[in-house]
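Re: that chain you flagged

S.,

Sorry for the slow reply, it's been a week of failed gels. I finally had a moment to sit down with the sequence you sent. For the record, here it is as I used it:
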Amino acid sequence: MTGRHSDDVHVPDDPGVHRRPDHPQEGVEDRVLRDRVAELLEGPVPLPIVQAGDPVLRRRAAPYRGQLGSRTLGRLVEAMRVTMLEAPGVGLAAPQVGVGLALAVIEDPGALDPELAVARERVPVPFRVVLNPEYTPVGPERVSFYEGCLSVAGWQAVRSRWRAVRLTGIDERLSPLDELLSGWPARIVQHETDHLAGELYLDGAELRSLLAPGEAWRHAGEIGPERAARELGFRLDGLSEEV
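Prediction finished late last night. Pasting the structure tokens below so you have them in one place:
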């Protein structure tokens, strides 16, 4: 899963590439990454979102260590933000636009329904950028809700996740991150960080809960997945199908 936090991060003043001379292979990988980003930024925005089945979604993303200059990184971040909002979504990881870099953008306006907001602990999250994120659970509590993904377009399934996590990494200014998150913001961070490890939310979802495109109205908007568990016959947080 998690992207690695690097203590050797350098961003040059120009949009060039920082390479370590003691790792020659990294220079080749960096050039491939830089060329991929340049190709994307020459095209239209919003960027095309890669769908499940593309190998880039199954590879561990490279930690950010200054492979892109600050201006290029800023342009990529802005293009990803536009893409996320247009989709629309509340998070987008770089592999979802075909870039194998440990980078994600997040922004969530929160839930419109007050009851849903309370049940899911879904509060607004201002736009933010995370590089090399890692998370660790805080406490034993897990919660299950329907979840979707822009790279598995239209499908939704119940996924159990840690209710609270500790997030570490760096932001777009290379300032260190070390914070505690709970509720829906913690779920978003887990979802996006998993992308950077080559994982999709379906890897840990309850597949009997799966809703095809056009079927989300059945359960995805409910306060919790209890009725879905009864009707579709799956276990929920250790409880039996008869919940």
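What I noticed first: The chain has five helices and eight strands.

Talk soon,
D.
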